[in-house]
Amino acid sequence: MDRDVVAAVNLSRRGRLRFDRSRAQMGLQGGAVEAVKGNPTTTVILSRCSEAKSNGQPTRDLTESIQRFYMPLTRARVEGFTLAEGNVRKLIEDASFPNQWPTKETHIQHKVLYKNGVSKEYGVHGSNVGVDFDICIADGICITVCPVNVFDRMELPGEQEKMDKGVTNDSGKAPLANWKADPAREQDCIFCRACEIQCPVQAIKITEP
């Protein structure tokens, strides 16, 4: 399943979204409206389209093409599976992490890594289970899917102002809550990579020791 669909479903279960199937005039199979107070932006969650092959091959369904629910509609558009996101940064694609990232400090039982010229404000918590706080949008999927309860919510009051103003971080998205997923029990990780795979903004990178 597409990571964005997983994100939408998780937030809908938490009451953050409500699905609206009354918009047939737009040709949608399903839709959603943000239920977050102060952010009434209407965003399409699920739509379905099909692609006919001119060479006579069977029609292939492009299922669950999506606009990310946390993107303003003025910036998001669907073209198949392609989203207009602009330039974003993804920790999982950084080959220099963690070996070439200096340690800034220690938090609980894990390192906080910070790389000048890359990190903007918070840096990355954890090295084996690295969570880039400058990319994390607090969707909570990693907390939900982790089978060994590695993560805790770490409150960051400064995120509230960003939420109120719709300020985006290095993911290209505005945060959904004023906390980050902190790998507080990094040593318990079994390296199943569920969090890394499901993170909608790819803020997590798993590195086995």
Kindly describe this structure:
By secondary structure, the chain is an alpha+beta fold. It has four helices and 14 strands. The protein folds into two domains: 81 residues, no CATH class; 116 residues, Alpha-Beta Plaits. The strands form five sheets. The protein has a five-stranded antiparallel β-sheet with strand order 8-9-10-11-14, with no helix packed on it. A three-stranded antiparallel β-sheet has the order 1-2-3. A two-stranded antiparallel ribbon has the order 4-5. The chain starts with a helix and ends with a strand. About 33% of the residues have low confidence.
What's the CATH topology label of the largest domain?
A: Alpha-Beta Plaits
Rg, alpha carbons: 18 Å
| Main sheet summary | 5 strands, antiparallel
- The helical percent reads 10-25%
By secondary-structure content and strand pairing, the structural class works out as alpha+beta
| Estimated share of beta-strand residues | 15-25%
Task: Count the E strands.
Answer: 14
Distance between the first and last residues' Cα: 29 Å
How many structurally independent domains? 2
Overall pLDDT, averaged?
Answer: 73
Given the structure, what is the number of helices? 4
Low-pLDDT runs of 5+ residues are: 16-85
Q: Overall 3D geometry?
A: globular
Provide the succession of SSEs: HEEEEEEEEEEEHEHEHE
CATH class group of the largest domain: Alpha Beta
Strand order of the largest sheet: 8-9-10-11-14
CATH architecture of the largest domain: 2-Layer Sandwich
